[in-house]
């Protein structure tokens, strides 16, 4: 093999996959065999070969040697790795590192840190699950302490760290469900979305089995209840869990939780914090004013941090003046249970110093439905130019009213968000708030619509036309398919929140349209569980609207998702109901797509004659409508079924007809599906060399585009070709590669393939 250019992590991973497939030094190595020989974790091998994390240079060289690369190939790929500038690249070691950055200049909390150290030390070198429940009032610094300590002891947990904000006190009442948190953790741990079960107990079981051989720090931040926490606790020894909450969670004692309760800062700790942020000289110069600030902030770290931030940006203003301003603020909101610890005055003090534009944007952002927001969406929701949004966000982050949690994405602390949302509801007229919400929806909807067409430019029109975009709102520019996939990945939590909010507040058209934009992305990522959730909302919205096409579409998407989740008994009634709706509308293209999905289900059920009939009906409907991409898909399906039934000459002729359409449309996805079918025909004709050539082309494409299901499916057939050519070692090696992919997806085909491998080794 000649080493291809590797301009991205995905291209490097594809080159490694080809090396692995063509390994010269012996049989193809499984992920576990590579991990065992290299002394790495199985999970990180998957990260390297899956293109999610580029191997560090020293590890890449060892990996290339294990894969049997020639010296020239090693030199070329090592050089390509050196040229990579991947913002997702992990450091050497590449353990999972999800902890947020620790606070610079952390101060105080010596008793709490000593207690946490004691708990960990008492557990010994190979502890059972250690649970530390850090509790205290709002703004007391629970998250800061938990993250600081987790960073301090991270080297004792070589498999890394997990972190989730459970949003237990979210002002919108949108606390994170345990099932959603579990899915997020499982995704980070390398479990494919298709493998994740729908119900919480099964998700918990999968999570615990995935963690069983790992040593990790897990921070469960801002929990609302022990019921939210219990499903997220590991089941085997070796992990440390830190839970933060405003509640003490005494009922977690049965799980062995150790309570660590935080109180307000002592005067010494508070003064130390101010000295760290303002400098010793300034603090020592005004001891009385410092004492006033500490007293007015009631020892609450959050209030002290905000007060210090304002003092820092006004270096020439005496602290006594600042203390007077703080004293004058109305402290009548967001009480923490103690008359002396009300933080609203501090927030209002910060808010009043904002420019009018920043104050307005702060209120709008706190009314935004998503957990965070990207800079282009800030401009869209605010109805302001991008550059102005950037300047105002800089003002808000400087004032510590908004934080940039990840590059380009912004959010407010829960308390600040509640404060800002209350201001939004009490300050801005209802008409303005409705306009704000509409701009937020329109920005995401119009961006999502354009991105969806980049992912699949041949998809049928929405048939529920978008309304004109709100004045002052500009959708985000998404340049290409890769950017579209990345945008959907980043915005998925917000889009799901928007779908639910729109459906709950009379925006049924918006809810349906947003769900429509997600379908190809979710299908590409094998995330059919989320598709079931979003399309269930979409179907209800379409029913309320009386929109028959919307009902037909959502019903078919629900049927397809159930089919892909291997639930034919649920899929077929939905697909047949959708077919009835389309036939009632005299809509041949919609009906034909239903027949395509029904044919796929019949084929997977082992009923080729029924599947062939459904494909032939679909073809007739597509021809009647002049729908070229549909014709291509139907012809490919017919050619595939003809080959399964032994009608090989007909199958080749059908595929040749399909190929003419494919070349006309320049649709790579359907072309590679056709290449797979043609490979199958050559395999059955006995021309194993031509069959293998076709299968390799299709495998390379689906590996490059991240469609692991089709990659695995075709690898099985490539293994069959090796077996028929008299090379059982190559066959088993290729099947093992397919088995790894099916296992990662949790697909039932894994068990069938495992049965084929067992008798021969």
Automatic annotation (TrEMBL):
This is Tfp pilus assembly protein PilF. It comes from Pseudosporangium ferrugineum. It holds the Pfam family HTH_31. SMART domains: HTH_XRE, TPR. PANTHER family: HTH-TYPE TRANSCRIPTIONAL REGULATOR RV0890C-RELATED (PTHR47691:SF3), REGULATOR-RELATED (PTHR47691). Residues 15-74 form the HTH cro/C1-type domain. GO terms for molecular function: ADP binding; DNA binding.
